[in-house]
From TrEMBL:
This is Dihydropyrimidine dehydrogenase. The keyword Oxidoreductase applies. SUPFAM superfamilies: alpha-helical ferredoxin, Nucleotide-binding domain. It comes from Ruegeria profundi. GO terms for molecular function: 4 iron, 4 sulfur cluster binding; metal ion binding; oxidoreductase activity. Its cofactor is [4Fe-4S] cluster.
Length: 477
């Protein structure tokens, strides 16, 4: 009888790739998880029970063909696994690293629900495509024929780049405009290297350029530039993300030493390229030797606390107004932060800052969780008389992001936006009410996830290709 290749979740335990010890990893910005050895990847993939109705797949925003590429990996057919994986995901090795798998694919794996520990889907996805890069299987796009239509994409984050890739596959001419000097959006300048090393992002940018995508960098699109881009291309995709930091307005909030998370993280990522960053070099955005307090409980806050540790802060504390069970950030990242020496002050909220010119402390009020509010979450309530001052000489605000005012910035009062300022666009196509103008990613969803931006980019590109095909068919009649 043929040996059974799959369903080994009863005999084989769940094993993640090796994680570097906290003492070893907290002084550098290298990724903390190692790669699986090939035998280990095959073994872990073989734990999958090949569900007839795979919940992992239906909870992956890209509907990746997970059971198929797990089976191909388990049976040593890695090149086919790569082909299957890249057919639905533009950046599988990036999603494998930074998707919150516990909330998406892995969190819905049925063998976890039967108590055996989820299949390590993300780590295997990363392994498949990293191996494909090593073996030279990842090739630039080479469309069967070139087309005359062109698309201008404003914003070179994961959404814009996923759209660029799909459009080039159809032979459409693509130009990506970005205000930064490197493409990649938050993959490049937001997410720190210990979660996603920057050469992983840059090799994708290079691959797209080799496949014919034109990049216009250092190009901050304003009203005049928007008109120029719209006139030049047959369609325009707005993929600008959300960058306006939510702020605090309370006594002392204007003191020096109180900084925005995005400024802090961007400076740190730029330094990892060896760039000259004045506000890092003069100490303003550098945690070295400082008592750091980060305010917030999301993934951005986790990235700030762990970056502060690596920069050599003397202490790093994270204030969050709810408790651990109710924080929005990933539990895995919180645990990583604790291992690295971050102290979490749960049920703690700022009410002001101490200091004359520069901050010296955060006035903290203690909270308890009260009755659930309209959203069903327990609302934090102040505990009277329990206030204290948390010493700090660098405070980082990681309170979330909002969209910039695009109708004003782009001089397009007709660009429809929601009451939150996100662009109104049709589900599954990204079409706005402006002719030939599409919008995708965070600027439509609000601050979201890389995998959703990729999904939007791919869907939007397909919609544009369909529109171009229909127009070409009508013209040919
Ligand atoms: P972005 O990645 O924001 O890219 C937008 C691009 O548009 C940028 O390059 C910007 O320079 C450019 N741009 C903006 N305005 C203009 C203009 N006027 N002219 C020209 N160019 C412009 N998601 C995860 O899935 N996993 C994580 O671990 C994770 N960690 C995160 C950590 C941090 C610190 C942050 C801030 C976010 C994190 N996210 C994470 C969220 C994720 O990064 C975003 O959801 C995703 O990058 C959105 O993609 P996007 O293409 O819509 O926009
Ligand atoms: Fe899971 Fe993200 Fe990969 Fe989908 S893209 S399989 S959600 S890691
Ligand atoms: Fe395999 Fe889990 Fe997906 Fe089922 S849910 S197909 S066991 S990875």
């Amino acid at each position: 009888m043929a040996k059974q290749a799959m369903l080994k979740f009863v005999q084989i335990d769940r094993v993640m790739p090796e994680k570097r010890a906290a003492d070893d990893r907290k002084d550098d910005f290298d990724e903390i998880y190692a790669e699986y050895a090939s035998a280990k990847a095959e073994e872990q993939a073989s734990r999958c029970s090949q569900c007839g109705v795979p919940y992992c797949q239906s909870h992956c925003p890209l509907h990746n063909n997970i059971p198929d590429w797990l089976r191909l990996t388990a049976t040593g057919r890695l090149q086919e696994a790569y082909q299957t994986s890249q057919a639905t995901n533009t950046f599988p090795e990036i999603c494998g690293r930074i998707c919150p798998q516990d909330r998406l694919c892995e969190g819905n794996c049925v063998i976890e629900q039967s108590g055996h520990g989820t299949v390590t889907i993300g780590s295997i996805e990363k392994y498949i495509t990293d191996t494909a890069w090593d073996k030279g299987w990842v090739m630039p796009v080479s469309p069967p024929s070139e087309r005359s239509e062109s698309v201008g994409i404003i914003g070179g984050g994961p959404g814009g780049l996923a759209a660029a890739d799909m459009l080039r596959r159809a032979g459409i001419q693509v130009t990506v405009y970005d205000r930064y000097d490197r493409a990649g959006g938050l993959l490049m300048y937001g997410i720190p290297g210990f979660k996603l090393e920057k050469d992983i992002v840059q090799r994708r940018n290079d691959l797209l350029a080799d496949g014919g995508v034109e990049f216009v960098l250092n190009c901050d699109v304003d009203a005049a530039k928007f008109d120029e881009i719209r006139a030049k291309h047959d369609a325009v995709i707005i993929a600008t993300g959300v960058y306006k930091s939510r702020d605090l307005s309370m006594p002392g909030s204007g003191l020096d030493g109180i900084e925005k998370a995005i400024d802090f993280l961007t400076a740190s990522n730029r330094k990892s390229f060896g760039d000259v960053v004045e506000d890092f070099d003069n100490g303003r955005l550098n945690a070295k030797g400082k008592k750091v307090v980060v305010i917030g409980g999301g993934d951005t806050a986790m990235d700030c606390v762990r970056t502060s540790i690596r920069q050599g802060a003397t202490s790093v504390k994270c204030l969050y107004r709810r408790d651990r069970a109710n924080m929005p950030g990933s539990q895995r990242e919180t645990q990583n932060a604790e291992e690295e020496g971050v102290i979490f002050e749960w049920l703690s909220a700022p009410k002001g800052f101490t200091g004359d010119d520069s901050v010296t402390g955060v006035m903290v009020q203690k909270m308890r969780l009260g009755q659930p509010d309209a959203s069903g979450r327990q609302a934090p309530e102040v505990i009277e008389g329990a206030d204290y001052v948390e010493e700090a000489d660098l405070v980082i605000k990681a309170l979330g992001f909002e969209p910039e005012d695009l109708p004003t910035l782009f001089g397009q009062p007709d660009l429809p936006v929601t009451r939150w300022g996100t662009v109104k666009a049709a589900f599954q196509t990204g079409a706005t009410e402006m002719d030939g103008v599409y919008a995708i990613g965070d600027i439509v969803r609000g601050a979201s996830l890389v995998v959703w931006a990729i999904r939007d980019g791919r869907d939007c590109a397909n919609a544009i290709i369909d529109t171009f095909n229909s127009k070409a068919a009508i013209a040919a009649e």
